[in-house]
Structures are given as structure tokens and as C-alpha cells.
TrEMBL record:
Compositional bias ranges of the Polar residues kind: 352-362
Coiled coil regions in record: none
Protein name: Zinc-binding metallopeptidase
Domain spans labelled Zinc-ribbon: 4-86
Region (Disordered): 352-385
Superkingdom of this protein's organism: Bacteria
Length: 385
């Protein structure tokens, strides 16, 4: 995530900030130019003569702007992808929904920046949609993906509930943003990988046979756990369950890594001293996050370059967390097989040059990847189509 500044006073502001703490201006994010604009007294921000107003989900915390005009879309590109959400009268679930939208907008920023194709569920069957529902106040919800529809249990916006599941399932990491990234990995496998014979063949070489029975894989995983020695070839225990999950986990970690690198580069973080010198002598005294690469979401870098930058930074962040008495920020080991899988994801991401927001001819007739991510203990999956 880049660092942003208020267009009125130039002060540093965050991606989610609704107002500038320095000058008090109401702020809005302009998708496409990736700027944070201060609204005028009439509630509009203007860019290149186009007036823009806040998304209709502004009461829920959305600070994205939409162009004002005769064909005004009341909701921003991120909020338009939500297919199902809590009813307005469900106050608890609505609060959870607002919290989940923060993670969804972060995901969409990264997806759009990488120029990945997005075809909405409103445009065609199998298009991307988010069903954001709460098992706290409604029926049980299972996090998962099915034919373009990503279902998220809003109950996991609660720290105590999500942490209890993390401990129960033995996971080192569990966040709402992680769920969004993982599940959209299934969507992009469907859209970009399964439709390309060459990519699909290479994907199967790295991740395994995706035609293996998925339900049997779930049953085996929860009955017996990960196989011995899994850390040598997989990024997580969950990745061992089925090739679908291995790809989705690798996809999520690719987004984790590049987003965190971009944030560090945006703030001009330097890694010098003992760690930087010992791990990467050629980077001595230089910015280990390489700002030039971060401008396009790291599409212009190689995966080897990305991981060379990431390794010392991850170590530094882990040590900083420990200094605060917290667990490691990134408690994962990137072995050579895992690095090869991340390199494949990077190839899929960096190879895209599609315009976003329009129908894509990639994957329209692709085999559908269906995953009910049983990491939620709340029961049955939602019916999706």
C-alpha cells in the first residue's frame, strides 16, 4: 500500500482515512489515479474537471469517490462487487460488514493496481462477487469460493472469535484480509490459469493434480492433518490439503509480500547495518524495498528480486514484533519449492494487461474451481451459483 497525502495541505494520510488530521478536510480516494483528494464545501472533489462524490457506502466507512454525472454509479467499484450483505436492521452484522469492507477495499486496490481482470457477477455468470454474511446473527457461514462468488463470514471481524479459530486450527496467521486474498486466488485460478492449457499444465507440475476429489481431500486433511515433512514443499499446512488450496495460499502470500514491500518502499524504509550487510552485500546502504518496482505493484520485478528484497525485511519485521512482545509478523519459511510456486503466481499476475471493470475473454469457458474453505467451524456453506 502506498503512502498518501492530503491534496489540500500535503500532510501524510492513510488509505482508509476519512479526514485529514492536520487540516480537517474530508478525504476521498480516487481510483484510477490513486490519489487522496480533499472534498470542497459542496461535498465534491474535482480532478481534471470531473466532479466526484463519496460512495453511497460512506456511512459504512467507504471513502472511495465516484464520478458525478448523468450515469452516476452510487457505489464505488469495490462496493459494487458485494452481492449479499446484512440487512440494514441488523446492527451487529452491519458493524461487522463495515469492518470487512476495509479489507475488501485493500484487496481491490491491489487487484486493480496489478491490472488483473475483474468481471462483475452483474456482467456474467461466474463473475466476481462477494457474499459478506454473518453467522453471529444469521445462518452458519462457511468461508469459500464457488463459481466466482467469494463468501466471507463477517463474524471473523471479531478478534476474539477469529483468534479462537486460529488456535483451534493450529494456524500461525488468520486475518480478514488474508481470507479475501486466499479466496480470490481461487477466482483467479478459474479466470486465468484453468483457461490456458500451457499455464494449467505448468500449474499441475508445481501444485499437483487439481482434478483430485476435493471432498476426499477435505476429509483426509481434517482426519489426519498435514503429511510429515510438509514444510519442505508447502507454505502452510492448509496448502497441503489440495492443489486448489496450495495455489490459493501461494496467491495470498504473493499479495501479502508485495503489498508489505510496497508499504515499506512508500515510506522510504532502509535496511542497513548488520542484517542488510550480511544477507545482501550488494544492497548495503540502499533501500531494500526498491521503490521503482513498487510503482506497478512489483509486476516489473522478477520473483527472485522480490524475494531478495523480502527476506531481510521479513526478518526485521519479525524482530520488531518480538521487541513489542508480539508474535512474528511473517512466521513462514520460503523453501525452494515454495519460491517456485510464488514465481508461478508472479508470472500469472505480471502477465496480465487487461483493462479492469470490463468483461474479460479469459476463462469464460474455464473449468470452475469450487472451494468451500472449511477453516471456519461454523457449519454448512452458503448456496452460491
Amino acid at each position: 500500500m502506498r503512502a498518501f497525502s492530503c491534496s489540500r495541505c500535503g500532510s501524510l494520510v492513510g488509505f482508509e482515512d476519512p479526514t485529514c488530521v492536520s487540516c480537517g478536510s474530508t478525504l476521498g480516494y480516487v481510483h484510477g489515479i490513486d490519489r487522496m483528494r480533499a472534498l470542497d464545501d459542496d461535498g465534491r472533489a474535482r480532478w481534471e474537471g470531473v466532479p466526484r462524490i463519496l460512495c453511497a457506502n460512506q456511512p459504512l466507512g467507504c471513502n472511495w469517490l465516484v464520478p458525478e454525472g448523468p450515469e452516476l454509479e452510487a457505489f464505488c467499484v469495490a462496493c459494487r462487487l458485494v452481492r449479499r450483505h446484512p440487512s440494514p436492521g441488523d446492527d451487529l452484522a452491519t458493524d461487522q460488514y463495515a469492518a470487512a469492507l476495509v479489507a475488501e477495499r485493500r484487496l481491490l486496490f491491489q487487484v486493480l493496481e496489478n491490472d488483473l481482470p475483474i468481471t462483475s457477477y452483474a456482467e456474467r455468470d461466474g463473475g466476481l462477487a462477494f457474499d459478506l454474511l454473518s453467522s453471529t446473527t444469521g445462518d452458519p457461514v462457511t468461508i469459500g469460493h464457488a463459481d466466482g462468488v467469494v463468501t466471507i463470514d463477517l463474524s471473523e471481524t471479531g478478534d476474539a472469535y477469529r483468534e479462537s479459530l486460529r488456535v483451534e486450527l493450529g494456524e500461525p496467521y488468520r486475518t480478514m484480509l488474508g481470507h479475501f486474498r486466499h479466496e480470490t486466488g481461487h477466482y483467479y485460478w478459474q479466470e486465468l490459469v484453468s483457461s490456458s492449457p500451457a499455464l494449467l499444465a505448468r500449474c499441475r507440475e508445481l501444485f499437483g493434480d487439481d482434478t483430485a476429489d476435493y471432498q476426499q481431500a477435505i476429509d483426509r486433511h481434517y482426519a489426519h492433518g498435514a503429511p510429515d515433512g510438509w514444510r519442505a514443499e508447502f507454505i502452510s499446512e492448509y496448502a497441503t490439503m489440495h492443489p486448489y488450496e496450495d495455489f490459493a495460499e501461494s496467491w495470498a502470500h504473493y499479495l501479502h509480500i508485495t503489498d508489505t514491500l510496497q508499504t515499506a518502499a512508500s515510506f522510504g524504509m532502509n535496511l542497513g547495518g548488520l542484517i542488510g550487510d550480511k544477507l545482501a552485500p550488494e544492497l548495503r546502504g540502499s533501500l531494500a524495498t526498491h521503490p521503482a518496482f513498487s510503482v506497478t505493484g512489483y509486476r516489473e520485478a522478477t520473483m527472485e528480486e522480490i524475494l531478495t528484497l523480502w527476506h531481510p525485511l521479513a526478518i526485521a519485521f519479525n524482530q520488531i514484533n518480538r521487541s513489542m512482545g508480539k508474535n512474528d509478523l511473517y512466521p513462514f519459511v520460503l523453501t525452494e519449492p515454495v519460491r517456485a510456486k510464488l514465481a508461478f503466481v508472479h508470472e500469472v499476475v505480471s502477465g496480465q494487461s487487461h483493462s479492469t471493470g470490463t468483461s474479460s475473454n479469459v476463462g469464460h469457458d474455464a473449468t470452475t474451481a469450487t472451494s468451500s474453505d472449511d477453516r471456519s467451524s461454523t457449519g454448512r456453506a452458503n448456496a452460491t451459483s
